[in-house]
């Protein structure tokens, strides 16, 4: 029988969430490096380079890989012979560890959890409560899996109940394109099959925490049904040509993980949840003998990449731009932008448009005339930083605001991640605007391009406030040009043909 001390358990949870905020799992780095080395798509290769550079910077600087430091997910397998030296519940101990991790003054993590989700959606301020799954199992240890899951990937979770005779691979292949690029590929797909709807979702979530081993599976001669299914899905999804950040390329998934469970004779529940390029999870065991001791990864495992963009990238001064200037930009083109930009996410957009519809003035300094807005909610700065990690958020959430923003504010460009929907693209075309993307999963790298940052409106909204950033050589890609052509349509289409061996005339 072992005894787990309350402070030891809380400290282990705290240390684990801090650890995964800045250390990628080594298996992910190995798999992404291999994908980077064999990638033929220039745009996708650039995106993967930025993710790898960012990852190494975070490992060195102990700062978050992504500005969306996620909702805390905790799996506990608690041995039946474990005793607790504690005065509070296991759930309360987990949440205290999460609170301490997310409010650590040396590396504060972004608080993104909202209470009253159907109502006023108030930020809890410390990212609690965590989502906790507990099992009681034989033994005298506590096995722990911690994961930080960002909204971009969690929002792309999918579920269906197939007929028993339906093909799972076909469903996955038909579903993944509709997930868009907001989950920041390349990453891992977790697939859960069987049980009941909630069981399938839980299986998918737990499956994605398993180590990446698809290459060893490819070399294996005899395979189980699940192993064959993994390979079939892996090959079929990569043949879609979606590529890194949805720009088109050879690698969309680094691995596919599958877990199953017996189900009803009339049912075939199937769940799919992606793990993004900011894959963050850790597994460890407590047996009461010592606190958790998490290994420091060897930085030699990270590839040495000097720059995450093409040296021929167009340099742009945002402070002197006009619509005639942006009309020259082409989809897929890399830009290095310098100058001043304003930031704003969902809540800021709503506040802006509410003011305009009431005939009221925008706050002082909020002038979008011939300017760009960056969809971002940064992490708080520490030490000598002007801003913490500040990567892009998923742009489609702003689609419903785009027409009015372009029509009423003088805005000429937007920066985010992933694709835009048809209505937003049409608005971009109609107003001669543009949409650029920064690389999701490269938040610390992006922040190093930001030379100054100040809050200019809605400070009470925290990360949702409007900031003014002054950037220097911030790398971005033209995703939708002023004519309404989207690289998220043309890129994957090109690479899907290329992978299939169909002759193509342009990249």
Briefly summarize what is shown.
The protein is of the alpha/beta class and 507 residues long.
Structure commentary:
Strands 14-15-16-17-19 form a five-stranded mixed barrel. The protein folds into three domains: 1-149 and 299-308, no CATH class; 151-277, no CATH class; 314-492, Alpha-Beta Barrel (fumarase), CATH 3.20.130. It is globular and about 70 Å long. β15, α12 and β16 (413-416) form a beta-alpha-beta unit. It contains 15 helices and 19 strands. With 507 residues, the protein is of the alpha/beta class.
Output the CATH topology of the largest domain: fumarase
The helix count comes to: 15
Mean pLDDT: 95
> Strands across the major sheet, in which order?
14-15-16-17-19
Question: How many structural units, i.e. domains?
Answer: 3
> In what range is the share of β-strand residues?
15-25%
How would you sum up the global shape?
A: globular
CATH-scheme architecture of the largest domain:
Alpha-Beta Barrel
Percent of residues in helices? 25-40%
CATH class of the largest domain: Alpha Beta
Strand segment count: 19
Radius of gyration of CA atoms, rounded to a whole number: 23 Å
CATH 4th-level superfamily of the largest domain: Fe-S hydro-lyase, tartrate dehydratase beta-type, catalytic domain
Measured distance between first and last alpha carbons: 63 Å
Uncertain runs:
none
- The computed structural class is alpha/beta
Biggest sheet, in brief? 5 strands, mixed, barrel
Regarding quaternary structure, what we see is: single chain
């Amino acid at each position: 029988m072992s005894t787990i001390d309350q402070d030891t358990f809380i400290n282990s949870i705290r240390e684990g969430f801090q650890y995964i905020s800045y250390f990628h799992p080594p298996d992910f780095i190995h798999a992404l490096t291999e994908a980077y080395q064999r990638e033929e798509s220039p745009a996708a290769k650039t995106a993967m380079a930025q993710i790898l550079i960012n990852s190494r910077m975070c490992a060195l600087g102990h700062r978050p890989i992504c500005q969306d430091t996620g909702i805390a997910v905790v799996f506990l397998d608690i041995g039946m012979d474990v005793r607790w030296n504690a005065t509070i519940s296991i759930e309360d101990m987990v949440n205290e560890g999460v609170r301490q991790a997310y409010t650590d003054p040396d590396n504060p993590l972004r608080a993104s959890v909202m209470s009253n989700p159907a109502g006023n959606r108030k930020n809890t301020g410390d990212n609690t409560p965590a989502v906790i799954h507990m099992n009681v199992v034989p033994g005298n240890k506590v096995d722990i899996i911690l994961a930080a899951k960002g909204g971009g990937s969690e929002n792309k979770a999918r579920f269906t109940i197939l007929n028993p005779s339906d093909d799972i691979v076909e469903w996955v292949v038909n579903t993944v394109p509709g997930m868009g690029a907001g989950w920041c590929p390349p990453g891992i797909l977790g697939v859960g099959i069987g049980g009941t709807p909630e069981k399938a979702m839980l299986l998918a979530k737990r499956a994605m925490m398993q180590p990446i081993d698809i290459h060893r599976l490819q070399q294996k001669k005899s395979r189980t049904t699940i192993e064959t299914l993994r390979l079939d899905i892996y090959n079929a999804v990569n043949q879609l040509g979606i590529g890194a950040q949805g720009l088109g390329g050879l690698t969309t998934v680094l691995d596919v993980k599958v877990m199953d469970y017996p189900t009803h004779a009339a049912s075939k529940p199937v769940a799919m949840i992606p793990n993004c390029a900011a894959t963050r999870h850790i597994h460890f065991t407590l047996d009461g003998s010592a606190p958790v001791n998490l290994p420091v990864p060897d930085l030699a495992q990270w590839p040495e990449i000097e720059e995450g963009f093409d040296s021929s990238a167009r340099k742009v001064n945002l402070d002197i731009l006009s619509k005639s200037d942006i009309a020259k930009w082409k989809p897929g083109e890399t830009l290095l932008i310098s100058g001043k930009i304003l930031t704003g996410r969902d809540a800021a957009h709503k506040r802006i448009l509410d003011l305009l519809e009431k005939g009221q003035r925008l706050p002082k300094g909020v002038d979008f005339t011939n300017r760009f807005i960056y969809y971002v909610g940064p992490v708080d700065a520490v030490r000598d930083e002007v801003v913490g990690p500040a990567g892009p958020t998923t742009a489609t959430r702003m689609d419903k605001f785009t027409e009015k923003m372009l029509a009423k504010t003088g805005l000429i460009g937007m920066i985010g991640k992933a694709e835009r929907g048809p209505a937003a693209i049409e608005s971009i075309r109609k107003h001669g605007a543009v949409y650029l993307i920064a690389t999701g999963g490269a938040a610390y790298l992006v922040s190093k391009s930001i030379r100054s940052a100040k809050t200019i409106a809605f400070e009470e909204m925290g990360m949702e406030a409007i900031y003014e950033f002054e950037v220097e050589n911030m790398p971005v890609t033209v995703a939708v040009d002023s004519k309404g052509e989207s690289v998220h349509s043309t890129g994957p289409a090109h690479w899907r043909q290329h992978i299939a061996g169909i002759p193509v005339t342009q990249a």
